[in-house]
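CO-FOLDING WORKSHEET

Operator: S.A.
Ligand of interest: NAP
Run index: 331
Mode: holo prediction, single chain
Checklist:
[x] sequence pasted
[x] SMILES validated
[ ] output reviewed
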Amino acid sequence: MTKKQPAAPAKKRVAPSAEPTSKGIDSYPLKVGTKAHPALGLGLWSLGRWTREDEVKTRTTVEHAIHAGVSWFDTAEVYGTGRSERLLGDVLSRSQNDGSQLFLTTKVSWEHLRAAQVRAAVVGSLQKLGRRTVDLVLVHAPDAHVPIAETMGALETLWKEGKVGAIGVSNFSLEELAAARAALQETDVVVNQVVYNLFDREDGDGVVDYCRQNGIVVEAYTPLLRGILAGRYLDGETPSPEVRRFAHHLLDRDRYDTLVAQARSIRELAKGEGIPMASIALHWLRRRGAAVLFGASRPEQVDEILDAWAHRPSDAVLDRADEIARGTPRA
Ligand SMILES: NC(=O)c1ccc[n+]([C@@H]2O[C@H](COP(=O)([O-])OP(=O)(O)OC[C@H]3O[C@@H](n4cnc5c(N)ncnc54)[C@H](OP(=O)(O)O)[C@@H]3O)[C@@H](O)[C@H]2O)c1
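OUTPUT RECEIVED:
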């Protein structure tokens, strides 16, 4: 059987479409599905806290983001053990927005990768989201104990039934990604969602290069490094233990001081250009062809990120930020 839509030719890079869709947010073509993939979107993870207060803040933030023109929202069955999906479904049902202009992504937990579990998870997610179909479903992370062919087979059946617009993966290595693609008969993996920011790069193991060359959109999560790349924690405030735990390989004591010094240099660079520091973080990713998935816990943060997105740094500025983050001394 042939793939329903042919994969983009090898070596063809995924390039943003020329015209922004809304609020200056452009989009990437997807190999499968009817919608283009917005280049910037909001994640509803909320650091996994989901206290009552977090829930109220997240709701206000999501409502504001829809109003402000954000169209891509990312959730998962594990976020708040379903509360995140339910909240998004509830916000959509109360808003004027019927969802057709939005791009909704959810994820099947790494604990639910057996075929029957995949179906139950996706059906459960659709119920919580209050929808008959979702634009994109990702495998949240691989499970070495479950053959990927079983998981992808179950997802492909759901895709054929129209419950899922397209299929993607998250936190997959190059080998895992290739195996996931090979397991699909009539469709293809369209997205790999990975941690990706100026200080945390996937180029080492070639995942991002492989995706770019094969028309797979890279969704970059933690683009702001929990706020550091928007100027947070650079003037005395220190990350909470939960933030440190999440990004421990970057925020551990040995590396932290150097990272803060480099981030301060990037902030100076932005100041010199008269642009928000986050512009550099976001557009460094965009220039690398990634779709940027940021987090926010307050409406003002959404506004700041949209404002940062609206300021496009020059290539020279992005190159200099790249050198600073790599620790390359100025020639
Ligand atoms: N697939 C996966 O395994 C995976 C893993 C992690 C995340 N994700 C997805 O990616 C999304 C984003 O991840 P993330 O939350 O780690 O990304 P992030 O954008 O690096 O961090 C978001 C945090 O940065 C701070 N922030 C936002 N705007 C700011 C601003 N203008 N100034 C200063 N600080 C600002 C906020 O911290 P405070 O809330 O503390 O104010 C916000 O919660 C998640 O919601 C989730 O959807 C996926």
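REVIEW:
The first helix runs from residue 52 to 68.
The domain at 37-195 is CATH 3.20.20.100 (TIM Barrel).
[x] output reviewed
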